[in-house]
Structure formats: C-alpha cells, structure tokens
Specification:
single chain; 8-stranded parallel β-barrel; 8 strands; globular; alpha/beta
C-alpha cells in the first residue's frame, strides 16, 4: 500500500514540502526584496517550494500593492523546477478572481483560497462559492481549510465534490482533527488528480506515512531540511526516522508557538528568522 502511495505522489505536480512563507518587511513596511531572495534561495537549495501570501505571510493585513510586488518578485526569481503557490483569499469573490489572474500572469503555478470569513455560511454557500471561484480563475486552485481564521470548517464531502472540478487540484487543511485527517487520507490518498496537503505540523509524519501528498509547515521557513528529510524517510517507509524528525519538528514549533496566539507566534517566528539572518522582525499592523 505504501508503494502505491509513493507512486501516486511521484506522478503529481502538487506535492512535497510547501513553505508558508513569511512576508519579509523593512521597518517602513515595504517589501524587503533582498530577504525574499535569500529565503527563496534557501528553499530551492533544500528542494521545498514557496507559498506566498498565506496566513503565515500576514496576507490579510497586506495592501494590494505590496501583495502584487511580492508575487512579482517571487515570480521573477523562479527557476526551472520551482512551483510557486500564491494565496488569493478575500471576502470578495471578484477580488480573489482578479488576484488569481494577476498571480498566474506573474508566474504562479497554482493559487490557494480560503472561504470568505465575514458571514456564517451554509454548506451549499461554501460549495457554490468555490464552484464560482474555480470556474473564473482560469487555472489550478487549491482549497484551503483553516477554521482558526475563517471560523468555518469546510465539510469533507463538499471538498470531495469540488475535487472533480477541472481547476480544483488539491486541498490544504490546517484543521486540528485526527478524525478529519484520517478521513481525508482515505478519500484522496489514491487520487492521481487531487492532492492533500496538511497544515497541522504536529501530524506531519502521520500524514505522510498515511499517504498524504505534502506538508505546509511554518517551521520550514527556517528549518526546511527537516521536512525534506521527513518526506524522504516517509517515502522509504522509515517510520522510526519519521518519528524522530516529528519530535524535532514539535520542539522547534513549540519554541515560537507554545502559549501564544497565532499572530504572536508569527512575530516570534520572525524573531527566530531574524537571529538566523534570514529576514527582519517587522510585522504588518495590527500584529
């Protein structure tokens, strides 16, 4: 069974370690382009891919012009073999569609979208929203489930129905539910046309050994080799090594997340990265 999972992953474009990249900022809140370049080089050296304008990247606090500058910079720095993921989440469908078209034009390979978070939505409304979005963006789309920020859980049957849309290529799930993870892997681990990424770092090893396609761990901003090695160990079925790497992931994650709110943990993450010389510590207000 494990070999079957490995074979599915080998044939997929959207797989592996995807880093939810911080947005490096100068003290005047402008984009620190030199730090962007350092981070993208670090990721490339370790065989992991960038996801810009996600939760870790403070995208909800960014002005449109800064977002576009970041996407252009990331697209400009792409090299052969790179896969660029770009977040387009918004409370406005038209804005998300416009952001997607801009991202594709600037070099993005796939866009990633959350649900709008202002109104309480029914399942039918969630499904209808993503159907409209997928039909209008004109390219590959990943559905991002993160109830900690959107205050919605996208039901798995909704995602499964959407997974058959020609533009929906995967899901990124940051919900902390062991039951949901097990059900997701059962649904999609054998799908050659649909990828499952886990954004819950504490279950990274379990997801990979269970047939998941990839991880989206914020700790990879400063420790990408850890997750590259975990992916390789999982592909070989080396559960002991995966477990050891998971323990290290937990330790590093706790160093900036334990006892902190999400926004506070992102500031602590940048402080760690600042000590490593990777980027500055400036956060976009209100964080």
């Amino acid at each position: 069974m494990l070999l079957a999972f490995i074979n599915w992953r080998m044939n997929k474009k959207y797989k592996g370690v995807v880093v939810p990249m911080v947005t490096p900022l100068s003290e005047d809140y402008s984009l620190d382009v030199a730090a962007v370049e350092r981070l993208l080089l670090l990721f490339r050296q370790h065989g992991v891919q960038p996801f810009v304008l996600g939760t870790t990247g403070e995208a909800s606090s960014m002005p449109a012009g800064l977002k576009e500058e970041f996407v252009r910079a990331a697209g400009r720095m792409k090299q052969a073999g790179d896969v660029l993921y770009v977040g387009i989440g918004s409370n406005c469908l038209a804005d998300s569609v416009e952001a997607a078209k801009f991202a594709y034009g600037a070099g993005a390979d796939v866009v990633v979208a959350t649900l709008p978070s202002y109104y309480t939505l029914t399942e039918a409304q969630m499904e209808g929203y993503f159907e409209r979005l997928a039909s209008r963006v004109g390219g590959p789309l990943i559905i991002y489930n993160i109830p900690a920020t959107t205050h919605h859980t996208i039901p798995l049957p909704v995602i499964d129905r959407l997974s058959h849309h020609e533009n929906v290529v995967g899901t990124k799930d940051s919900e902390r539910s062991a039951e949901r993870l097990a059900a997701s892997l059962k649904l999609w681990s054998g799908r050659p046309d649909f990828s499952h990424f886990l954004g819950w770092a504490a279950k990274s090893g379990e997801a990979l050994l269970g047939g998941g396609d990839g991880l989206v761990p914020s700790t990879a901003n400063f420790a990408p080799a850890l997750y590259r090695d975990m992916l390789a160990a999982a592909a070989l079925g080396d559960a002991e090594k995966v477990g050891a790497l998971q323990a290290l992931s937990d330790e590093l994650g706790n160093s900036y997340q334990a006892g902190r709110l999400l926004g506070e943990s992102l500031a602590a993450l940048k402080r760690i990265m600042g000590k490593e010389g990777l980027c500055g510590v400036t956060m976009m207000p209100p964080l």
